[in-house]
Amino acid sequence: MIDLDPALRPWVDGAPAAWDVREAVRVAEDIAAVRSVGVDWEPGDEEWVHVVDERILAQISKFFPLALVLGDDLAEVFRSRHAEVTTVVITAADAEELRASPDLLQRTVLSAGWSDEFNPEQFSALDLFLESV
Amino acid sequence: MARGRGLLIRKALEFLRKTVRRARRRPAPRHGPPKPTGGFEARPISRDRHGFLTDGRYRVNSRENLKHTHGQALAGKSSFYPGTDVDRLTLEAAQRADSANLWNLKEGTKARVTFDDHIGTHGETGRPTNVVNVYRRKSRTIHASPGSPVD
User: Compositional bias (Basic residues) spans (chain B) (predicted)?
Assistant: First the structure.
C-alpha cells in the first residue's frame, strides 16, 4: 500500500501560488513530448491531467504539484525536468494501492468529499480522478 | 397625452425585448433526455432492488450526478439543464458508448458522447454543450457531466 499522506501534508493550507491548471498542462505536455505520447484532459470538471499512450502513464493534479506516475523510469523524467512536482510511483492507474488520511484528502485533492464507493484506505489513481469529476 | 402613450409603448417594447432575450438565454425545460446522434441498441432501464437506476450492465451513481444537476451543482462545475433526467441520460450515454466503442484508453474509464441537442452548460466556458462525458468504475457504476462543447 502506498501512503499518500507525506505527499499531501505540505498542501493542507493551500497549493503553491505558482501552480495552476496551466502549469499542470504544461508539465503534462512536456513529459508527453519527451516520451512521444499524448495528453488527455478536459477543461472544466476534470481535476487531473493525464499523460497517455494506450493507457494512463501519469496523472497530474490541476490544483497541486502532484503527479501519480507509472513506474520509476517515468518518475525519473519528472524529477529531472520538473523538480517542483512531487511524484508518487504507482504500478497502474487502476491499481487500488493508495491510501490517505480522510482529513488530508478533504483538505487537498478531494475537497468536495467523496462517494460511498471511495475507500480512503484503498483506492487507485483513477478513483481519485473519478471522485473529482 | 400622445407623449405619454409613446412612452408607454416604448416601455412595453423594451419589456418585450427583455422577455425575448431572457427566453433565448434560458433553455426550455426538458422532460426526457435528448437522443444521441446515430442509432444504438438501447437496453431496457429499470430500478434494481436497492433503488439504483440500471440497465443490467451499469448502475447509476445518483449522488455523483448531483454535482452536475441544475440547482445542486457545485460552484464552477458544468451542469445539465433544468428538468433533465440526468440518471437516465447517463445510462443512455453509457449504452451509446458501448455501441460505438467510445470508452477511452485501456482503462476504459471515460467516454465522450455527442447528442443531437444541447444538454447543459459547460462550467469552464459557460457555453451550451451537446456532449455528455460519462465515467465508469470497475464496479460498473457510472456518472456523467456535460463535456466541453464540440466546435
Answer: 20-33
